[in-house]
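TASK: fixed-backbone design
INPUT:
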C-alpha cells in the first residue's frame, strides 16, 4: 500500500505559499533545488527541496541545461538572498525554541502527573485512615454499651490514638510534601514563563536587528545603484566625446589625405615641368655652346664683324638673364611646395 502524498509549504518570492502537493509547488515561479519547503504535518521543519525525497524525482525529471555563469545580481535578487539567509536563521532559531518549549512541557506534564498520582495515593491512605477511625469509634460505642469490655476499649482507644497520631503525622508530612511539590511546580511554571518571555524578547530583538540590517543593506544597495548610474552616465558622456573626437580625427585625416594627394600631384607636375625646363636648358646650353663656338670662329675673322658679335653677345646675355630669372622662380616654387608638403 503506497503512502499518501503529503502537502508542503514553500518559501518563494519572499513569501510562504501553500500547502500544495509537490508537483504543484514545482510549477511555482522561482522554484528550484534550493527552495525552502516544510511538510504540512511537521511545521517549522524547513529544508531545501533537493533534500526531500518527494521533490528529488521532480528535480531529476526537470531538464537541466549546461551550467552557465549567472548574470550579475540585481538589487531585488540580493535583497531576496539576504532575506532568505535571515529567514533560515530565524527558522533554525524557531525550531530550537520549539524543541526547548516541548522539552519543558514534557517535563512539566511528567511532574504534574507524578504529583497527581501522589495525591491519589494520599487520598486513598486518608480514606483508609478515616475508615479505620470510624471502626475504632464504633468499637468505642460498643464498649460504652458493654462495660465488661472496658479493658479492650482502652487498649483499642490507645491503639487508635497511636494510629491517629501516626496518620496525622503522615498526613502532615504528605501535606508538606504536596506543598513542596506545588511550590516546585509553580517555580517550574514561573521559570517556563520567564524563559518564554526572555525568548520572545530575544526573538523581538533579533527581528529588530534583522530589520535594521535589511534597511542598511537596502540603503547600501541604493547608494551602489546611484554610484553605478553616475558611472554609467559618465561613461556614456565619455563615449559620446570619444565618438565625436574620432569623427573629427577621421575628417582631419581625410582632409590631410586630400591635401597630400594634391601636393603629390603638384610635385609630380612640377617635376615634369623641371624635366621639361631641364631639357630646354640643355638645348639652350647646346645652342649657347654652338654660339660660343661660332663666336670663337667669328673672332678670327675681320673686325668688320665686331658689331654683329656685340649684337649677338647682347642677345645671348639677355637670354641667359631670362633663363636665370626663370630658374630662380622655379627653384623658389619647388622649395615652397616641399615645405608645404
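OUTPUT:
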Amino acid at each position: 500500500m503506497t503512502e499518501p502524498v503529503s502537502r508542503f509549504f514553500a518559501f518563494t518570492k519572499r513569501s510562504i505559499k501553500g500547502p500544495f502537493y509537490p508537483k504543484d509547488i514545482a510549477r511555482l515561479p522561482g522554484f528550484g533545488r534550493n527552495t525552502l519547503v516544510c511538510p504540512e504535518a511537521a511545521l517549522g521543519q524547513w529544508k531545501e527541496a533537493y533534500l526531500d525525497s518527494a521533490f528529488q524525482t521532480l528535480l531529476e525529471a526537470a531538464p537541466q541545461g549546461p551550467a552557465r555563469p549567472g548574470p550579475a545580481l540585481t538589487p531585488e535578487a540580493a535583497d531576496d538572498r539576504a532575506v532568505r539567509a535571515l529567514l533560515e536563521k530565524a527558522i533554525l532559531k524557531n525550531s530550537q525554541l520549539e524543541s526547548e518549549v516541548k522539552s519543558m512541557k514534557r517535563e512539566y506534564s511528567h511532574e504534574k502527573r507524578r504529583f497527581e498520582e501522589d495525591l491519589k495515593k494520599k487520598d486513598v491512605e486518608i480514606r483508609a485512615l478515616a475508615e479505620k477511625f470510624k471502626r475504632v469509634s464504633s468499637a468505642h460505642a460498643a464498649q460504652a454499651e458493654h462495660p465488661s469490655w472496658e479493658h479492650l476499649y482502652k487498649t483499642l482507644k490507645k491503639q487508635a490514638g497511636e494510629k491517629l497520631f501516626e496518620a496525622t503525622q503522615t498526613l502532615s508530612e504528605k501535606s508538606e510534601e504536596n506543598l513542596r511539590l506545588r511550590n516546585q511546580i509553580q517555580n517550574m511554571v514561573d521559570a517556563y514563563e520567564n524563559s518564554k518571555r526572555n525568548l520572545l524578547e530575544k526573538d523581538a530583538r533579533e527581528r529588530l536587528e534583522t530589520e535594521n540590517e535589511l534597511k542598511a543593506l537596502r540603503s547600501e544597495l541604493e547608494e551602489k545603484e546611484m554610484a553605478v548610474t553616475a558611472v554609467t552616465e559618465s561613461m556614456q558622456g565619455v563615449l559620446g566625446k570619444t565618438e565625436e573626437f574620432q569623427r573629427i580625427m577621421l575628417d582631419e585625416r581625410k582632409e590631410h589625405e586630400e591635401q597630400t594627394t594634391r601636393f603629390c600631384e603638384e610635385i609630380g607636375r612640377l617635376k615634369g615641368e623641371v624635366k621639361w625646363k631641364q631639357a630646354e636648358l640643355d638645348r639652350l646650353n647646346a645652342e649657347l655652346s654652338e654660339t660660343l663656338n661660332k663666336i670663337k670662329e667669328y673672332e678670327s675673322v675681320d673686325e668688320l664683324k665686331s658689331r654683329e658679335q656685340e649684337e649677338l653677345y647682347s642677345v645671348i646675355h639677355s637670354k641667359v638673364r631670362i633663363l636665370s630669372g626663370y630658374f630662380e622662380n622655379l627653384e623658389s616654387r619647388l622649395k615652397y611646395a616641399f615645405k608645404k608638403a
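COMMENT: The chain is about 80% helix and 5% strand.
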